[in-house]
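Good morning N.,

You mentioned wanting to compare the apo and holo forms, so I went ahead and generated the holo version with serine. This is what I fed in:
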Amino acid sequence: MNTEQIVRTFTEYFEERGHRRITGSTLLPSPDDPVLFTTSGMHPLTPYLEGRPHPQGRRLVNVQRCLRTTDLDEVGDTTHLTVFEMLGTWSLGDYEGPLSLDWGYGLLTEGFGIEPGLLHATVFGGDDRTGPDTDSLKLWQERGVPVELTVEDNWWSNGPVGPCGPDSEIFLWTGDGPPESTPTGDDRWVEVWNHVMMRHRRLGDGSLVPLPQRNVDTGLGLERLATVLQGGTSVFDCDVLVPWRRPLLDLWQLDDASLRLVCDHLRSALVVIGDRVHPANTGRGYVLRRLVRRVLTRLWRDDPSHSLGDLPHELIQHTLHHFRQQSDPDDLRRELLEEERRFGRLLEHGRRVLARPRFRGRLKEEDFRYLHDTHGLPRDLVQSLRPQCPV
Ligand code: SER
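and this is what came out, ligand included:
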């Protein structure tokens, strides 16, 4: 099943159960939202989870592109992507958690044909403020799915304040032999679907108050599910990432870890530019800048003549089409190339500055500050330009 078929199966399953499909938003949250990028499917729906009536009703389903920078350093492993898509469902004060979990179980096992014995659930075990989630526990026990109880790992919030609640996560076994151990103790259990019983709001002082309605918010990582259904061992094996691997390998002859990082960051950078973000020293533009510069650092480590100008046209087009973005592919390439030139000039300048006798030994905090404030050289760049020197 390719990702398009997965999206169709998912949305039709929930449409048959009274959900209306809503259009996903771009990566850019609304202007009054303090976060830089949309990090989960619920994000654009926050006002409706807090009680505002949604024009399409109380049962919704969609696919939402998301960007998570907290995982930037984990990219290159087999389960994390910077930009990814999340399939989501919402009950806005309509049905309760156990029904959502039961539908989730039905879709995974019957709709997607996953062997029930390969599933494991986790459930909120309770803390000093909120009792254990016995409703979810009971549902999983009735379905014969093993459950692990946790505390922090089964509490979901989008930030320090705002809607939050206990969650129940569904994991799939990806190991070779029969399932063993539990999700928190073995990363061969891969989390695919999170069901959040979003009933509380956390206030600035840390206290919890009930939301005006009892919601359910679920999110399923599309590329992770596609990987498992397609028999892959890494998200980079799924059908939306495979078209990236072969051409980039032919172009730049990268080792496995570098190839994963370059595929992820370049694809993510294109999506971000496609949502009209430009490289900058702050905010969203800085995230974009970091993505592009991390790619270039990796490429130039092997061969300084590598250039993003060689990125195949089909990859840019394929990505714009996949994310339903209207930008001109040539504009995206131009944006990448301009950033490449800026970074090339900065590196050249950085090397000249760092060759000064003053910077020969261990750098002090004031040196880093000076290099940053006077020469625009961030700490990680300085460190990458002096790999043999003490830090
Ligand atoms: N908000 C939850 C998550 O992002 C479920 O959608 O995991």
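The pocket of serine is lined by residues 40-42, 88, 156, 194, 196, 217-219 (CB under 6 Å).

Happy to go through it together on a call whenever suits you.

Best,
F.
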